[in-house]
Design a protein that fits this description.
The structure holds three protein chains of three kinds. By secondary structure, chain A is mainly alpha-helical. Chain A has helices at residues 17-49, 78-111, 116-130, 134-152, 193-220, 227-245, 252-265, 268-294, 305-327, 329-336, 348-360, 391-418, 421-429, 434-464, 476-487, 490-523; strands at 160-161, 163-164, 167-168, 175-178, 181-184, 186-189, 367-370, 374-375, 380-381, 387-390. The chains are: A mainly alpha, B alpha/beta, C mainly alpha.
Chain lengths: 524, 245, 620
């Protein structure tokens, strides 16, 4: 019954599915590249007409403007100015995420409350906040700050807040409120803080082990875990001890110094070879893994065109990178710290030198308690006294926090409601108490559902901090805009924006995804 | 035999990753023949009939349908798909279209028939599978058995020479199995070439011209139903039949 | 009961009403435990004082609400010329007519039980009463009226509810009757309400007086209310006679937006001699030539050459558009080598785009041609698309007869709507293509689509607006000046397309694999599969997500105020508080702007929930 098997006849190329598919893709790629090439040509030609050439020089040159707030208000270069913008953006983002999470959980739980008043209040909050553009809200809070002294500040004093609605609150000079913002007493970090932070990192690692140890005990049945209590206690102990014992960390100073010297003194060609080797090795690993997945008893002749594309892509990218590292010593020098980038010394070597300097310093308390103060002539807050919350910072922060909390609240509510009722009933049936039920059954399941949308909201919050420009908050967008108004270098600024925000998005989603995956693993 | 074979498979092999689903299948089907494929799940029987209209791409060997070879050739794929109708386990009706639209969609757009022509034939087909009154309903409003009969009508609307059935009754409630099997028997009586993957041994015994037993991606045993159910030769066939009968 | 005894219940128990009453309600909802009672008291205090402070702020005589009433037109349509103001009313009229007809055709009318109406009255009246009681001291005049009317409404609602409870049957009222009653009520309000209006005298002093609405406001609105009612009645009358009405209305809605924006509001200066000498010939010649080609290519079974010819045609048409300037004048470095206005550029492209469109149609012709009737229908679609394309070129190239400041578009709330609707409509095709690209089996296409989507989504909108307002002009600097609003629309479109693509991709993923297999098994081509099977199902599945995107886009348009466009927020925040008569009114204006945004967004989101329920989505 068997018949001789011939080789399948090949159809003419214009009828071959695989050929057609790749011809179309290559045509598409050529089209896209052409459009971008044309746009590039036009803009370069047009810039040339205006006697402007695309250049990154401004990154190294001094800028002619002052930044309203940040780790320095007189940046020495365009690069530093953008760096101030970046740190300002991160400041709002991180504190905003913390506050919005707490408030969001409160809102979400209130929405589920049986208490009619609490429930309705949360509903009104969500429906109000969600349906008004965030920009309008930020503008609104900016205006509120500018009129707040009329309402709460005792006019006869030095401008500090003593009473609220007739209630005497605090000693004079502790809290200030003015159209320029607020100022509070605060623990101002001093030089010892780096050592203290190092101490706390060790503490965090220790805490993790303690937590696992308690969980193990619980599982072994020898003791009740109280894991949170234990690990919290350990962390607190480290914080307190660290306040006095932090100079111990000074021993790490020379270690960092050694690493810095290693980066500084090793010949650059070694780094070039190592990086090129990493690129090739990575590609080899990827290709090998893929081939192992695809290996069939009949050999590798069964690769589809997609498989080929992937393998070739990986190889080409790796070889390109390797060649780049080998032929171009400049970027490698910049990365390890033997050369400069945009006129800045910011490689690994400088990083470790900085760490060495900060850790080798032996002395003082990590923090000082400091009260706010006012510069008498201009009525400005002194930036280093107490903690100053500027009007712009406050408006942006409260705006994004309230806005994001509304969405997080909805996500929390949806997540809790999505846990099937049967789970609760089953929990009661096996005799769990209400608190145990929440802690052990409902919350872990709800958390899995809540995490992806909340992660999305964190991303939105990070992007929404760019609206600070409406109240002149100097984040990377506002600083960048100032720079290109001055220099006309739109394209480099736009590229910097894209690079920074892509980095933030990728990092945040990587964190959320990792967490998500971990939770999914627990599920099995 | 090869000369009249409407389906001619020679040494068909197929892998999913490193799992070999088909280990060289040789099969010739003549026009008007009803072939029933049985076998344990994972034996490659569904994969095999899905290769015949290129829902899966075989990697080695040759498949000829009506003497057209299945290759990467756009023209051949088009021609073979017009010639081969398929009925799926889970019906796969288009939920956003009415029953009549489901049936006439392919004749109008693929076969380029006029709408009135396609609808007239569609009505005839619905009559044949016994649900002429459901033409303007949506698939979601029909029972499983009715949906599967619509799926048969949809496949027939292209006037194929060959019909493939991929476990057409497995997703049905027991009381609906009979109406679908009846429609299939009717079709067999009319002389349609059919390849049926099924677990309905009664159907195989009654209608099949030939029964094939697949296991581990191989065609283990083939024969008339009589031979198959009374005198199976291979140990694996005996084991399988003893488990299900 | 002994085992042998048989128990038979002969009497029938009447159903008992659940325990009810105000005390029971409080016990159930506010004070069901000690902690809940404490919470209620604390939160109650906060709500009480918060509300009181809020009301006090709103009713404070120092509030400059007159800046709102004096500038209401500015907020809505910026400085639209008075002489042409009827165009604004016509635009609103178009929307109102379509809304009335749609309400009738989609049968939104329902029934609501009297009990629900009574409960509604009860809560509205109670709210008014609470408001009157909470209001601080200065508010003396209105308090009595508010309290009395609140009490009256609440009392009526309560009595009605009691009466209804006594009767056994539950009577219902048509929502149409209620809506009609509401319309009459609004009309009455329009003619009786008095708002604060400020007058600035020659010596600089101001006086705020209460005045009735001007005739130029209340007459058109009254007419519009009448038109709304009339169009609903007409819709009810014809909805059974014209079965295709739903499809016609969808088309009209789609057309209404460009018609309002480009024709009614903009008053284009159309050069009829160009239309006759250029547009009409292009339309006829290209239309007929491509039409004939489509007739041949669309014929069944004419072989593969038709794909090859149309693909080559498409490539040539695109190359011609991109490089014709170079072919004809190799010394030139730009496609627009003469400094020219946007109108000139459009004029020059008018020849070329119809050819690209024609080539695309030719590619699709084998999929959608066939029998003679189908081919003719397809050629009809081609003529319609060509006509729309040429018309949009002509309208885009025409200058406006109106004297507007700076841009060719009206500002205010009208601009907010323009940006939101243009953004979503224009981003739709791009978004769908990107979604298909990302879900495609072709790795290069998938990579490019994914890169675009992820890059655009990770960077905030404000940076895209800056890119639009700065880079777009850089690409074409000194060559063609693109209107600032158009630049914003381009940026918003490119931005929103990435988000839309992700939504549509969600829909694509929700389609079971069997659907593709079934389509393959009957021999459909990729294009047919996409247009006939995949997209209809995917789009239906993502309607709620798309409405959500419209809402967020509507809010996001406020960002254009940062790049200096005169949208609602910019006028409220910068323009009005800058007027000498309205200095210091920024808080009032911002609050009003927020309220306007809120009303629209809230309405949208509520209707989208209703739509979701109607589509039966969101329930598993």
């Amino acid at each position: 019954m068997t018949t001789a098997i011939q080789r399948p006849t090949r159809p003419p190329f214009y009828r071959d599915v695989t050929v057609l598919k790749w011809v179309f893709q290559i045509a598409f790629l050529i089209g896209i590249v052409t459009v971008f090439w044309l746009l590039g040509t036009f803009s370069i030609a047009n810039l040339a007409k205006q006697n402007l050439a695309v250049s990154w020089d401004f990154m190294a040159r001094p800028v002619g403007f002052q930044v309203a707030e940040g780790f320095t208000t007189f940046p020495e270069s365009g690069f530093e100015a953008l760096l101030v913008g970046v740190t300002n953006m991160l400041r709002v983002t991180i504190s905003g995420i913390l506050a919005a999470t707490i408030l969001g959980i409160i809102i979400g739980v209130s929405r589920l409350s049986h208490n009619w008043l609490v429930n309705k209040l949360a509903t009104v909050y969500i429906e109000t906040i969600r349906n008004i553009p965030l920009l309008v809200q930020i503008v609104f809070w900016g205006i509120v700050v500018s009129i707040i002294p009329d309402i709460v500040v005792d006019e006869t004093s030095d401008g500090s807040l003593k009473s609220l609605f007739g209630l005497r609150l605090l000693p004079e000079g502790w809290i200030f409120a003015s159209p320029k913002g607020f100022a509070l007493p605060w623990f101002v970090p001093t030089d010892g803080r780096w050592q203290w932070v190092g101490f706390m990192i060790v503490g965090a690692v220790a805490t993790r082990y303690v937590y696992r140890w308690r969980i193990r005990l619980q599982e072994a049945g020898t003791a009740e875990a109280r894991a949170f209590l234990w690990s919290g206690g350990v962390l607190l102990a480290f914080a307190i001890v660290g306040t006095f014992a932090h100079p111990v960390m000074g021993i790490f100073g020379p270690v960092f110094g050694f690493v810095a010297a290693f980066f500084q003194n090793t010949p650059i060609i070694i780094f070039q070879i190592v990086l090129a080797g990493l690129a090739v090795g990575g590609a080899y690993y990827i290709i090998k893994k893929r081939l192992d997945e695809l290996r069939t008893p009949a050999g590798l002749g069964k690769l589809t065109d997609d498989d080929w594309f992937r393998l070739v892509m990986a190889a080409v990218v790796a070889l390109g990178l390797a060649l780049f590292f080998l032929l171009q010593s400049g970027p490698v020098e910049a990365i390890v710290g033997q050369g400069t980038i945009f006129g800045q010394d910011i490689g690994f070597s400088q990083l470790f030198t900085g760490l060495e300097n900060r850790f080798s310093f032996v002395g003082g308390a990590p923090f000082d308690f400091s009260l706010p103060a006012i510069d008498g002539r201009f009525n400005n807050y002194l930036p280093d006294a107490g903690h100053v919350i500027t009007r712009a910072y406050f408006a942006l922060w409260i705006g994004v926090v309230l806005y994001t909390a509304a969405f997080i609240g909805e996500a929390v509510r949806a997540g809790v409601l999505a846990v099937p009722r049967g789970q609760t009933e089953a929990g009661f049936a096996v005799g769990l108490r209400r608190s145990q039920l929440l802690r052990m059954i409902v919350l872990p399941q709800a958390f899995r559902i809540i995490l992806p949308p909340v992660g999305n909201q964190y991303l939105n919050l990070a992007k929404n901090t760019s609206l600070g420009i409406a109240v002149a908050y100097p984040d990377i967008v506002q600083v960048g805009q100032t720079i290109f108004n001055q220099t006309g270098q739109t394209i480099p600024i736009v590229i910097s924006w894209m690079a920074w925000y892509s980095f933030v998005s990728l990092t945040l989603s990587a964190i959320v995804n990792r967490w998500n995956k971990k939770l999914k693993l627990v599920e099995r | 035999m090869t000369d009249q074979a409407i389906i001619d498979c020679r040494g068909v092999k197929k892998w999913f990753g490193d799992f070999q689903a088909l280990r060289g299948i040789d099969l010739q089907v003549t026009k008007g023949e009803v072939v029933v494929i049985i076998g344990p799940s994972g034996s490659g029987k569904s994969t095999f009939i899905r290769c015949i209209n290129r829902l899966e791409v075989h990697q080695e060997g040759q498949i000829f349908v009506d003497r057209i070879e299945l290759t990467n050739d756009v023209r051949n794929i088009e021609a073979i798909r017009k010639d081969v109708g398929m009925v799926f386990q889970s019906f796969n009706l288009f939920p956003h279209l009415t029953i009549m639209q489901n049936i006439t969609l392919a004749p109008i757009w693929v076969k380029k028939q006029s709408k009135s022509e396609a609808e007239a034939y569609g009505r005839e087909l619905l009559e044949r599978v016994g649900i002429p009154e459901q033409a303007d309903k949506y698939p979601g409003q029909l029972s499983g058995g009715q949906q599967q009969r619509v799926a048969i009508a949809r496949a027939l609307a292209m006037q194929p020479q060959i019909m493939l059935f991929d476990e057409p009754t497995s997703a049905l409630d027991p009381e609906m199995v009979k109406e679908v099997l009846d429609a299939m028997k009717e079709l067999a009586k009319e002389g349609m070439t059919m390849i049926v993957v099924t677990h309905e041994m009664g159907f195989a015994r009654e209608v099949a011209d030939r029964v094939l037993f697949f296991d581990y991606g191989q065609l283990v045993e083939a024969g008339t139903p009589e031979h198959f159910f009374t005198n199976p030769q291979h140990d694996r066939t005996k084991l399988f039949l003893s488990q299900i009968l | 009961m002994a085992d042998s005894e048989v128990f038979v219940d002969t009497g029938e128990l009447a159903p008992e009403p659940p325990p009810s009453g105000a005390v029971q309600w409080i016990r159930d909802n506010l004070a069901y435990s000690v902690s809940s009672t404490i919470t209620t008291i604390v939160v109650g205090f906060i709500v009480f004082f918060g509300l009181r402070a809020l009301i006090a702020w709103f009713l404070n005589p120092f509030r400059k609400w007159s800046s709102v009433t004096a500038n209401s037109r500015l907020l809505m349509v910026q400085a639209y010329p008075d002489a042409q103001f009827s165009r604004v009313w016509i635009s609103v009229g178009i929307v109102v007519v379509l809304a009335g007809l749609s309400a009738a055709v989609w049968r939104v009318a329902g029934k609501v039980s009297v009990g629900q109406v009574a409960s509604g009255l009860l809560s509205v009246g109670s709210a008014a009463l609470v408001l009157a009681l909470l209001a601080p001291g200065e508010f003396t005049g209105g308090r009595g009226i508010l309290a009395v009317s609140g009490l009256a409404i609440a009392g009526a609602g309560y009595l009605w509810k009691r009466a209804k409870k006594a009767s056994i049957n539950d009577p219902v009222i048509s929502t149409v009757a209620l809506a009609g009653f509401g319309l009459v009520l609004i009309a009455v309000f329009l003619w009786t309400i008095k708002l604060p209006v400020q007058e600035v005298f020659a010596d600089g002093t101001k006086e705020v007086t209460s005045q009735a609405l001007a005739n130029s406001t209340k007459v058109p609105w009254t007419i519009l209310l009448g038109v709304l009612a009339a169009s609903y009645v007409i819709g009810v009358a014809i909805r059974d006679a014209v079965p295709a009405l739903r499809r016609i209305l969808v088309g009209l809605w789609a057309l209404s937006f460009p018609a309002i924006l480009m024709v009614v509001m903009r008053a284009p200066d159309i050069k009829w001699d160009t239309v006759l000498s250029l547009d009409l010939p292009i339309f006829l010649v290209v239309g007929a030539a491509v039409g004939a080609a489509l007739y041949v290519i669309g014929a069944p079974d004419t072989g593969e050459w038709k794909f090859i010819v149309s693909a080559l045609g498409l490539v040539l048409a695109i190359l011609w558009v991109l490089f014709s300037w170079y072919l004809f004048d190799p010394t030139s470095t730009s496609p627009f080598h003469i400094t020219s206005s946007a109108a000139d550029v459009l004029q020059r492209l008018e020849f070329k785009f119809p050819l690209i469109l024609g080539a695309l149609f030719a590619l699709a012709a084998p999929s959608f041609g066939g029998a003679k009737a189908a081919r003719l229908q397809f050629i009809g679609v081609w003529w319609a698309a060509l006509g729309l394309l040429i018309m949009s070129f002509r309208l885009g190239a025409a200058s406006s007869l109106l004297q507007l400041s700076g841009t060719a578009f009206v500002g205010g709330l009208a601009l907010t709507f323009t940006l939101a609707i243009a953004g979503i409509v224009l981003s739709f095709p791009l978004g769908v293509l990107l979604a298909l690209g990302r879900a495609s089996t072709m790795p290069i296409v998938r990579m490019i689509s994914t890169t675009y989507i992820e890059l655009v989504r990770s960077v905030p909108l404000i940076t895209w607006l800056y890119i639009g307002s700065n880079l777009l002009n850089l690409f074409l600097a000194g060559v063609v000046d693109i209107d600032s609003v158009v630049r914003a629309i381009i940026a918003i479109t490119l931005f929103s397309a990435a988000y839309l693509a992700e939504n549509v991709r969600g829909g694509l993923q929700s389609i079971p694999k069997g659907q593709y297999e079934a389509a393959d098994a009957v021999g459909m081509s990729v294009v047919q599969k996409t247009v006939l099977i995949t997209l209809p199902q995917a789009l239906k599945a993502v309607i709620p997500a798309l409405v959500g995107q419209v809402i967020s886009l509507f809010k996001d348009t406020s960002l254009v105020s940062i790049i200096g466009l005169f949208d609602l927020l910019y006028i409220a925040r910068t323009v009005v508080p800058g007027q000498s008569a309205n200095l210091g009114s920024i808080m009032e204006m911002t609050v009003i702007a927020a309220a306007i945004y809120w009303v629209f967004t809230f309405t949208f989101s509520r209707s989208s929930m209703r739509l979701e329920r109607r589509l039966g989505l969101g329930t598993r």
